[in-house]
């Protein structure tokens, strides 16, 4: 099965950025130790001065949909999803992606 990729745009509520980053760090630690099928799990910080507010973009890539589903069931991921689902920490938009036209990474 083809790899699954997604981008999540996280916009923390005022004063909540550090709490989100702490939750995400717990997830990163878990992924590094337990999930070799997660091919990419990377956070980018938006430039507040240019974007007008604090935002994060999380880029994720999984070996397959099954790998993504397994990742989503991990305890620290469930904790973060539940807290984000309450709506008090951040606004979140998740975009599932597939390759389109463009120049592949030269890195």
UniProtKB/TrEMBL annotation:
What InterPro entries is this protein classified in?
ABM_dom (IPR007138), Dimeric_a/b-barrel (IPR011008)
Domain (ABM) spans 4-96
Designated name of the protein: ABM domain-containing protein
What species is this protein from?
Clonostachys rhizophaga
């Amino acid at each position: 099965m083809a790899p699954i990729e997604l981008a999540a745009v996280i916009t923390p509520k005022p004063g909540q950025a550090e709490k989100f980053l702490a939750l995400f760090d717990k997830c990163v630690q878990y992924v590094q130790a337990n999930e070799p099928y997660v091919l990419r799990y990377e956070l980018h910080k938006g430039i507040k001065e240019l974007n007008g507010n604090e935002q994060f973009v999380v880029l994720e890539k999984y070996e397959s949909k099954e790998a993504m589903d397994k990742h989503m069931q991990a305890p620290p991921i469930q904790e973060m999803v539940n807290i984000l689902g309450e709506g008090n920490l951040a606004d979140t938009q998740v975009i599932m992606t597939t390759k389109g036209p463009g120049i592949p990474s030269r890195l």
